[in-house]
Inverse folding.
């Protein structure tokens, strides 16, 4: 019999991740703010819990998959929170993308109860969550990581479940991922804006660039979105805006200057301001196209 | 007997490109400002010409591979320039990376003599030039492109010799290439600055990111340079500075805003200002590391 897992946060990502744990044979205890996803998981075989504390009472492993830092703080350390009821030797795995500084603070609170916390943010989007092929970037101690690897492997590609370092290192790596993508997105958007404005065939430019040093998954996948104008998410601009807010906060907190990331964050602000919050974040391209006077 | 080719500009790139034309069996007429490279090519079987005009008198195909826009203007339209002596039906192939606006002007001057000009800037660096595996982005008319393809194939990878569009489109595509790379470079540099400053293992971050959406040749190759601190060029920062100057000029001339490219250009300015002109352009990373107080 596999261990019981508690799962808190049944949004676009959490729902399919939780289902993959059930498929793998784990008894699942779930909690979420909205009733619909809970009912959906109960129909798939999960047990509903009335609070985060109840989840912690019933499960030795508690996974959180929540939108933002305050959500994780509330669920772990708020009233009827996970920390108030953690079992001895329990493991908390926070798979949300949140502040690395808050993560190390929360990990210390969890440790004070005798339990252990891993930060394990993911990339790969809804498709990766559904297919169980997420990349998972883990921070925390090595022994706990090793023990939790089979659990994480129910949700991610085993080759891409990597321990980056101690507590918070997973969140730092996730920020690095979003920062690297942001620069690439801005570069591709500006290149396409110039090509379009000068009447040069953008599809041929993309094809030529994919054969050389400018080759990237961003040019390939998001470049294709910009070509066709199909900005169905994918990954919503509003969530990318949140990730870049965390990136810029981490830059300030750690004494790092990220001028390009700051610029990309402003482009995302412009996208969201013009009604693009629910578009795929590749729609940053439309901001640059608009600045060049092209639709 | 293959056609005689004139080759003007025997720098780091031009020298190996010219040698590959000789290897392919083309009689070669060469001209360059400095004597050394001319002697080297003559030793390999080329004929030396006294001026660009003399090259044009001796060869029905004239290739230029020069550092910057004014160099190409001088060689083509200056005193004893190529245009003064072009044969009927000659083809000028400018493989330099220069201003697209100047390119279309020069192409019109060449056309007024009854000859044809292609713009055919390359990417792939010195290694690509030596191996004959350059990517070549071509602007100009389709028939001339088709006729010149076997000549270009002596210097580039046939799969990556692409006609992008009419005159100037090759230069626009080259700018797009440098712009896309610039964004990716800035993103990777900032990600690595954050990881290093927070004590997170950058090699593991790079490896994790290569498995996901942040994957790019820049992260792979230039990320490796940043890890090891080996900034032997490769592609010199001074040349990238020139390419970004052309990019920003093209943005202004065509009514396009490129804020990220402007930022990258400033980072390159900082690199060059601190003595990095002859380092590989991946050394942009050191500017961000310096801004974060790390060496």
């Amino acid at each position: 019999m596999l261990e019981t897992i508690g799962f808190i946060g049944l949004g676009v990502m959490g729902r399919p991740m939780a289902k993959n744990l059930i498929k793998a044979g784990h008894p699942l205890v779930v909690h979420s703010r909205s009733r619909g996803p809970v009912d959906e998981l109960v129909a798939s075989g999960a047990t509903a819990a009335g609070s985060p504390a109840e989840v912690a009472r019933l499960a030795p492993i508690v996974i959180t998959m929540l939108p933002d830092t305050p959500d994780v703080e509330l669920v772990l350390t708020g009233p009827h929170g996970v920390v108030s009821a953690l079992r001895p030797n329990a493991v908390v795995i926070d798979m949300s993308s949140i502040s690395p500084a808050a993560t190390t603070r929360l990990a210390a609170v969890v440790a004070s109860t005798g339990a252990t916390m891993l930060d394990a943010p993911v990339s790969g989007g809804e498709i990766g969550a559904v297919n169980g092929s997420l990349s998972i970037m883990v921070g925390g101690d090595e022994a706990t990581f090793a023990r939790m690897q089979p659990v994480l492997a129910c949700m991610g590609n085993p080759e891409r479940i990597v321990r980056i370092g101690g507590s918070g290192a997973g969140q730092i790596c996730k920020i690095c991922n979003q920062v690297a993508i942001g620069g690439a997105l801005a570069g591709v958007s500006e290149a396409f804006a110039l090509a379009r404005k000068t009447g040069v065939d953008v599809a041929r430019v993309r094809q030529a660039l994919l054969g050389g040093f400018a080759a990237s998954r961003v040019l390939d996948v998001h470049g294709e979105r910009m070509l066709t104008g199909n900005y169905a998410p994918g990954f919503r601009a509003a969530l990318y805006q949140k990730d870049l807010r965390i990136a810029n906060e981490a830059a300030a907190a750690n004494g790092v200057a990220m001028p390009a990331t700051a610029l990309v964050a402003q482009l995302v602000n412009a996208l969201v301001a013009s009604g693009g919050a629910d578009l795929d974040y590749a729609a940053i391209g439309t901001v640059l196209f608009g600045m060049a006077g092209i639709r």
Notes: Residues 5-166 of chain B form a domain with the Rossmann fold fold (CATH 3.40.50.720).
